[in-house]
Amino acid sequence: MIELVVQGAVLTGLVIAAVLIIHFRDLLSAAVAFGIFSFLLSLEFYILQAPDVAIAEAGIGAGLTTAIFVMAIRGTQRMEEVEE
Amino acid sequence: MNMSKIVREAANLLFPFILVFGFYIVLHGHLTPGGGFQGGAVIATGFVLLFVAYSYPQITERIGVGALHNTETLGLLLFIVTALIALGFGVTFFTNWMLDIGPILNNPVAFGPNPGDLNTAGVIPVMNIAVGIEVLGALSVIVLYMMSGTKETI
């Protein structure tokens, strides 16, 4: 029962983080939301008893990919342009 | 362009702890979840944290691109040489040749639930360390080369 509650909370957090990534116009906020999404995904892998995949996801998804996005934003511009 | 002083100090503070955790995952690869690739990715995350906090010229005077290249090459060489030594003993490629000679990494594995012994599994920890070194160099070099191409407008 407790596992079901934790899993439901993590999956709800995943959906909320994914919606926030699309919603943000500030690209740095979107990158941080992507990091949170990746962290929750690694937590979900751990709950589903795949700790190997969880470590790889936490290292590459939450660490390296977010850093690459931050570097790309530093090289271009921070705000997304709105198309009318 | 640097990040703020808070980000730089936090990166400096966190870097050794991330390094220790990554090497723990690599060294315990044959006992606990994780292994060469996962540990190498965690260590590379620590390096990339420094890359994000500092500008490209400051990074290249502390950590050379050539040193990371050599790290990657060293890991690949260690991996393939360990596999090739098995041919010298008259057995096939990638055979666990360390189990037959010497006391190093050669304890018998205990039966049932046990706390785990690092000194087991023959050639597997050596391969894990080789893969860890290789992944650490490769992922850091990828991010460093991407960083060298950006103009840093913000």
- Topology, number of strands of chain A: 0
Shape, principal axes of CA atoms of chain B: elongated
> How much of the sequence of chain B is in beta strands?
under 5%
Q: Give the termini separation of chain B.
A: 8 Å
In sequence order, what are the helices and strands of chain A, one letter per element? Answer: HHH
What is the rounded distance between the termini of chain A?
Answer: 48 Å
Summarize the main sheet of chain A: none
Question: Structural class, judged by helices and strands of chain B?
Answer: mainly alpha
- Mean pLDDT of chain A comes to 88
- pLDDT < 50 runs, ≥5 residues of chain A: none
Explain how this protein is built.
The complex is a heterodimer of chains A (84) and B (154). Chain A is mostly helical. Helices cover 81% and strands 0% of the residues of chain A. Chain B is mainly alpha-helical and 154 residues long. Chain B has one domain. The longest helix of chain B is centred in the last third of the chain and has 26 residues. Chain B starts with a helix and ends in a 5-residue tail after the last helix. At the A-B interface, helix 3 of A face helix 2 and helix 5 of B.
